[in-house]
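Consider the tokenized backbone below.
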């Protein structure tokens, strides 16, 4: 810690650990394991102390400045999302929409990419990167994105949406693309 423990008012956050999850602190990394996998995240030991005790993760900062309060809240939210991800997982569903040119969507597991062919009649395929340990499936006109990390699932969905974004045309007329349906 940068400051002596008695210099400022302490701020504490407590996060409950679900019975199916296991949380471990290893240096400046928090590791969460569960039935859906393992997630790791680094944290700055300069601003907060993290301990695991009695089925709870306790986050403490010895400085109540605005940045430290924000950082402790952010880390508490990340830990909740990690626990929820390794126990339940996260899922997003997208829909493939086209008017005239039938779009073909394939998942290349080796390259960790979603390949979108014949988008608005273009010859070159558009490629969207699959981030992290995320599973992507195409079922008819739906794309299902699942994984233990909320950030990876969301970024993969954003990459797919960005790859099919139409620029320089009226989006009310040219509505072809892949859109987020439900989270």
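A designed sequence for it:
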């Amino acid at each position: 810690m940068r400051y002596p423990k008695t210099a400022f008012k302490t701020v504490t956050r407590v996060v409950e650990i679900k019975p199916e999850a296991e949380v471990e602190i290893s240096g400046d990394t928090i590791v969460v394991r569960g039935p859906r996998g393992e997630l790791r995240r680094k944290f700055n030991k300069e601003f907060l102390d993290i301990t695991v005790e009695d089925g709870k993760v306790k986050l403490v900062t010895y400085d109540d400045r605005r940045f430290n309060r924000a950082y402790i809240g952010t880390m508490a939210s990340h830990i909740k999302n990690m626990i929820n991800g390794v126990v339940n997982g996260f899922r997003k569903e997208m829909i493939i929409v086209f008017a005239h040119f039938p779009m073909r969507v394939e998942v290349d597991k080796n390259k960790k990419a979603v390949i979108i062919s014949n988008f608005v009649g273009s010859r070159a395929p558009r490629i969207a990167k699959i981030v992290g340990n995320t599973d992507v499936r195409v079922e008819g006109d739906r794309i299902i994105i699942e994984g233990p990390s909320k950030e990876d699932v969301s970024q993969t969905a954003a990459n797919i949406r960005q790859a099919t974004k139409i620029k320089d045309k009226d989006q009310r007329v040219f509505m072809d693309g892949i859109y987020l349906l439900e989270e």
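Residues 11-87 form a domain with the Outer Surface Protein A; domain 3 fold (CATH 3.90.930.12).
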